[in-house]
Design a protein that fits this description.
This protein is α/β, with parallel strands linked by helices. About 40% of the residues lie in helices and about 15% in strands. The strands form three sheets. An eight-stranded parallel barrel has the order 1-2-3-8-9-10-11-12, surrounded by five helices. Helix 1 (about 5-15) runs antiparallel to helix 13 (about 355-375) and helix 6 (about 190-205) runs parallel beside helix 8.
Length: about 425
């Protein structure tokens, strides 16, 4: 057994609960042949050898230049070495782009500074890495329509999801008196959509000295939005059905398993295309993705993160491993650690704000310990659970919540700093 194999076996043994079993979905590797030879990211960027201590900073956390400076300073003082800084949420962006309009939080207008450029500068000045965090499939968020005509919702309605009756995916979901606006998504089964997304990300990667591109919602966002809702089997537009028929000779209802695999392969192809673009454009940058921590659940959203690892088209997978249970948090590592891939596995933990504050903070500390002892890496969701910010979407900014954040800081930040000091 090689040293590498021994190390991997030892780390798997540290996981607290027995490994999950996994049946890999069969399928072709047709998208793999176009991927360039796997890069050695640690040779091109030695800092990537360091264990990842990351934090997600959402687009709701900042508005002014001072907000960005404060955020990066807090992350550095908190012991983090990687900031996942969100700059694309739903077809609008937080940097000047010729392809997409400014984020609606800036009233679709240039705010007088470049949030991404400033965040990169502040992070690099503190010796931190910054990955540009982009939501991939969402193209708008309801319940209201975009307030500007130069937006995907109006520019390319044919790129969105339609059900078998020709009805467009709704901006607002209502069932039994409950109503909620949610994302409407692009259709990755269309080659022109994949080409567009690669172009958006190429513009970002080419112009900014980012350390990585972090993909979120790199899947079908086809989950229930309100309880009791029945989600149509998207997409059923004529063009998608014709592409599927040409590929398989079938209609979706003739072979649901084949239909599911084909849709999954379209997402796989998009990941492969983005990976190749990053390699060609900024080879010292990593391509990472936030993935569901339970692979079988991921496949229900046509997300096959294990396949991306096996085929060498991802550098880091961030497991969205949000649970109150420390044993369950550890158990979910197993399929990812068993992969033969060189991609880093970064467990993402969610600070459980709905729990009693001390208990929730203790769980976060325990999960950090498990992650460090098992795979060296971890990521915290999210900034607004630890620090005050402009974010009123994910959390309240009341005095009561401020005091809770101070308690979390007292418990969680010393743990992160202690991990940093040992490295």
């Amino acid at each position: 057994m090689t040293h590498k194999q021994t190390s991997k076996t030892h780390r798997i043994a540290l996981v607290l609960v027995a490994a999950l079993t996994l049946t890999m979905t069969s399928g072709c590797t047709w998208f793999k042949k176009d991927v360039a030879h796997k890069k050695d990211i640690t040779q091109q960027n030695p800092s990537m050898k360091e264990p990842v201590r990351a934090i997600w900073v959402t687009r709701y956390d900042y508005k002014t230049a001072d907000d960005v400076r404060t955020i990066i300073d807090n992350c550095a003082r908190g012991g983090f070495n990687t900031v996942l800084f969100q700059v694309r949420g739903n077809g609008t962006v937080s940097y000047p782009s010729k392809l997409e309009p400014w984020d609606e939080r800036f009233n679709y207008e240039h705010p007088g500074y470049d949030p991404l450029a400033l965040a990169i500068k502040e992070a690099h000045n503190r010796g931190m890495m910054l990955q540009a965090w982009v939501n991939v499939m969402p193209a708008w968020k309801g319940p209201d329509k975009p307030g500007i005509q130069n937006q995907l919702y109006y520019k390319h309605p044919e790129w969105f999801w339609y059900d078998r009756t020709g009805t467009r995916q709704p901006l607002n979901h209502s069932v039994g008196g409950k109503s909620r606006g949610w994302y409407v998504s692009l259709n990755p089964c269309l080659p022109e959509v994949r080409e567009y997304l690669v172009a958006v990300f190429h513009d970002l990667v080419a112009r900014y000295n980012i350390d990585g591109l972090h993909m979120d919602y790199i899947r079908f966002p086809n989950e229930r939005v309100v309880p009791g809702e029945k989600i149509p089997d998207y997409p059923r537009d004529a063009r998608t059905l014709e592409l599927y028929r040409k590929s398989t000779g079938l209609s979706p209802d003739q072979n649901p398993e084949s239909w599911n695999q084909w849709r999954t392969n379209q997402v796989n192809q998009l990941v492969a295309d983005v990976y190749r673009m990053v390699q060609d454009t900024r080879p010292n940058a990593v391509l990472s993705a936030a993935v569901g921590s339970v692979p079988k659940r991921g496949l229900t959203h046509h997300q096959d993160g294990l396949r991306w690892m096996a085929d060498g088209i991802i550098d880091q997978v961030y497991l969205m491993n949000y649970t109150d249970s420390v044993p369950k948090f550890a158990q979910r590592f197993a399929p990812w650690m068993n992969s033969e891939s060189d991609a880093a596995v970064v467990p993402g933990l969610g600070i459980r704000q709905k729990l009693e504050v001390n208990h929730g903070a203790d769980i976060a500390v325990a999960q950090i310990d498990v992650a460090v002892n098992s795979v060296d890496h971890f990521a915290v969701f999210a900034y607004s659970a630890l620090f005050d910010s402009n974010n009123r979407v994910l959390t309240s900014q009341s005095d009561k919540e401020h005091q809770k954040r101070l308690i979390r800081q007292e418990k969680i930040i010393p743990k992160i700093r202690s991990v940093a000091q040992k490295r």
